[in-house]
């Protein structure tokens, strides 16, 4: 049918006219698949989270299900100490991770942006953990940290520390241990983005600065950094949101332990909904997490005056 | 101040003799300032990789720091006994399907965003940005319900759809940026030559989008290959699970079989490393072409 219709159409001239005029419906047709997928699998779930946040909803206790008003929220803010603990830990995790990742990522990008022998190989190697998944990162660091044959054993062989130490099960070492594991994977992300942006810095600027006798440090502060600013703001924001939301690494590396020491808010939410089946309460927690993220993002963009100066 | 200005004339004086390349400021960093920090960072990057290779290749119980005598027992065990062969197939399927779906849908949407002005465009762009703040992890419960209603639980389709959906917004933003970088006049010239919009796009624009599409497509593949949570939640049948879920199972066992875990990890890493090695040069150009400049 379709073929027959196509053949029946008059040839070139009308078609050409149609192509050059902007067809009304075409853009809508083109975004339709994406829009439908996002409506069905993002918008609808978000709305249902808001809806359930006002409900008591627990499939294992159906007799209590029903409208709850703001009960869930009242409980979160007044009685739930775990909410505050996990929120504090999330904030600490995001700030330390993103801060260190940016610092090392920027340094790394500046280094591999230089011209030196072995640059291509160097780049490929230092960027390689970027492609490693959260779960695989966990697997690797479980091997490094395990108490019998991990790094600590070989350190103990050399007289540093004691045998049988497990950094992941000690509340005083678990935070730095997890931070280092996630840095290993996170630094290349920043390095790649910053390197991409570095390559668009106009070389004339450096030459001009050179002629004016500006030192390399000065060139960095006055040319490189201002140029990178928007990219840095945007990537730290995206990474911050990502670090806040991501559960792969901590779920598999520490499981939120020991003794809840490394439970982030999303991990707490996952436990509430998946293990305790308390969907209504988990939805209320999710709503709160959304609002916090949105608020922090807006404040961050405002404070950094994103895109404000040049445009 | 004076000391800083002083050297400049000197440099200018030497300048004409040198090739142009040596004059550039970023070439003047002393070599040790590059190699020392880079080597330290390389150690930090590579030791974990060496560690996992070591555990995968040395016999169980060995504490040697070199993988010798070498054995492939762990690989055989994890591939057959721990069903990584099956997981591998599933992961490939999920990765490739997500790549294809994401690229096609994002290409269509990205083209509309780049080339047309239409009424809901601004709202749609805003919605795309907002999705970046919507964590898939927090939507697990409603997503589970949706897939249960669609009878897709325990089917790879659920994971493919979920991965595609969360990969779409960013891919679409990136691709529309790439398309905007291709001058519209090229397409218009093709129309004048008698191409319709689709043919003009295919012949003129698509080849120029290659680096960008490779970057976006590999992102989608790597992301789907690596991602863990959706597969963990939506696929309960062991024969349907993916590699990250298999790794998690190995890790959460009471006594972790470190050799098997290491071998499983390497199996998980190989395709990603291959993809990564292949796209390296596209990645940077792809990014600088559209992504960061926005």
Automatic annotation (TrEMBL), chain A:
Residues 87-300 form the ABC transmembrane type-1 domain. It is found in: Cell membrane. GO terms for cellular component: plasma membrane. Residues 1-20 are annotated as: Disordered. Keywords: Cell membrane, Membrane, Transmembrane, Transmembrane helix, Transport. Its main location: membrane. The chain crosses the membrane at residues 26-54, 93-112, 124-144, 279-301. Gene3D superfamilies: MetI-like. It is a multi-pass membrane protein. Belongs to the binding-protein-dependent transport system permease family. This is Sugar ABC transporter permease. It comes from Streptomyces guryensis.
Automatic annotation (TrEMBL), chain B:
InterPro entries: BP-dep_ABC_trans_perm, MetI-like, MetI-like_sf. The keyword Isomerase does not apply. Its main location: membrane. It holds the Pfam family BPD_transp_1. Keywords: Cell membrane, Membrane, Transmembrane, Transmembrane helix, Transport. GO terms for biological process: transmembrane transport. This is Carbohydrate ABC transporter permease. It comes from Streptomyces guryensis.
